[in-house]
């Protein structure tokens, strides 16, 4: 699905746009993903080279597929013509868990610490709740203090620990399981 554009101010007053990227953004989204994975791969699931060989045509197809989905979205932050952050939200399709969803988020180092992720996450929670999805979850590396602070400030709670679930730089590392149970609108 496609979320409409909103212009917001970062903590330093700089305006940025929050919206779903479309096929026309394939090139700038690939540039964003390549940079994000090269600079922050120790926090993410995809290896740093994942997008190096993805073509713009392939990325167009991915974006078109995402826009066609009714209970999933990308929500990206743009500084002018540069994508600086992205959040991927996906609702669960399991019939007994249609009120549940999961998400992943990333912001370029050059734009971190200005409230970009906070804005993306709070809009994601609001948009998910509007779809009747109020029970959110994800896991985060135990050493990702910045992300943990972000999630806890937004009302997510640590509900468990997954041991050795990722192999990073030759070592198995743990992740915390986080859950956000927001008000059930029904
Ligand atoms: C985690 C991440 C998304 C945060 O993005 P960001 O845009 O810098 O975050 P924000 O500026 O919106 O800050 C939001 C909160 O994060 C926390 N935070 C931000 N900078 C921090 C820092 N240097 N140290 C500790 N906490 C910090 C604060 O709680 C802040 O909330 P507050 O300003 O209301 O106190 C970003 O660091 C990132 O993309 N990291 C690499 C990828 C990643 O780790 N993704 C998450 C995988 S689970």
How many domains make up the coordinates? 1
Major sheet summary line: 8 strands, mixed
- Which ligands appear in the coordinates? coenzyme A
Task: Give the termini separation.
Answer: 22 Å
- What fold name stands as the CATH topology? Aminopeptidase
Helical residue percent band: 25-40%
Characterise this structure.
The chain has 186 residues and is of the alpha+beta class. The longest helix has 15 residues, at 26-40. The chain is built from 4 helices and 8 strands; from the N terminus they run E-E-H-H-E-E-E-H-E-H-E-E. The model has no long low-confidence stretch (mean pLDDT 96). The protein has helices spanning 26-40, 56-68, 116-130, 145-153; strands at 6-9, 15-19, 72-79, 82-91, 100-107, 135-141, 157-168, 171-181. The chain has one domain (6-136): Aminopeptidase. The site of coenzyme A has 21 residues, from strand 5, helix 3 and helix 4.
How are the elements arranged and paired?
Elements: E1 6-9, E2 15-19, H1 26-40, H2 56-68, E3 72-79, E4 82-91, E5 100-107, H3 116-130, E6 135-141, H4 145-153, E7 157-168, E8 171-181
Coenzyme A binds at residues 40, 43-44, 105-107, 112-118, 140, 144-147, 149-150, 153.
